Amino acid sequence: MSDLNDIKDAANTAAADSGDLIVAAMLRGVETWAGAQREMLAGVEAMWAEWTRQQRQAAEFSARTVQQMCDCRTPRDFAQLQQQWLAGSLERAVSSIDSVAGHAVQPTTPYDLAMACAAAQ
After folding, report:
1. Using 50, 70 and 90 to split pLDDT, how confident is the model at 71?
2. DSSP code of residue 109
3. Number of CB atoms found within 10 A of residue 36's CB
4. C-alpha dihedral, 34 to 36 to 37 to 39, nearest 10°
5. Distance (Å, whole) CA 84 – CA 1
6. pLDDT digit string (tens) for 36-50?
7. CA distance 58 to 84
8. Which among 16, 51, 62, 75 is placed 20 to 30 Å from 68, CA to CA?
9. Are 114 and 33 in contact (CB under 8 A)?
10. DSSP string covering 77-95
11. How many C-beta atoms surround the C-beta of residue 92 within 10 A?
């Protein structure tokens, strides 16, 4: 009877050990996924902060331009301010596109994200 108990104990120990291995493997996977998410969100945060800064600058520039347009004495001055405003708007649009392209996330699949995270470690 003690041999049967020893076999059951050995089977339970083996099952517990394999369960621990499975849990450890799952935890490594979760840690890898969480690391990839952290990196992705850090990139999104940087992109969002840059976009917000650009929008604030655009609003300030537009407000100054409108105030200057109100103070114009001639149609020529008004047209010149309008051209400057349009040129500034186009420059900011190009800058925004460059900024978004610079922060583009390369990995597109869960496997790519895991590999990128693993490579970073």
Report:
1. very high
2. S
3. 20
4. 120
5. 95
6. 888 888 888 888 888
7. 13
8. 51
9. yes
10. HHHHHHHHHHHHHHHHHHH
11. 15
Mean model confidence pLDDT for the chain: 79
- Distance from C-alpha of 71 to C-alpha of 65, rounded to nearest angstrom: 10
Give the C-alpha separation, 119 to 87, whole Å: 43
Give the total residue count for the chain. Answer: 121
Q: Read off the amino acid at residue 19.
A: G
pTM score above 0.70: no
Structure tokens of 38? 């952290």
Report the first-to-last Cα separation within the chain, whole angstroms. 52
Q: Confirm if 89 and 58 have CB atoms less than 8 A apart.
A: yes
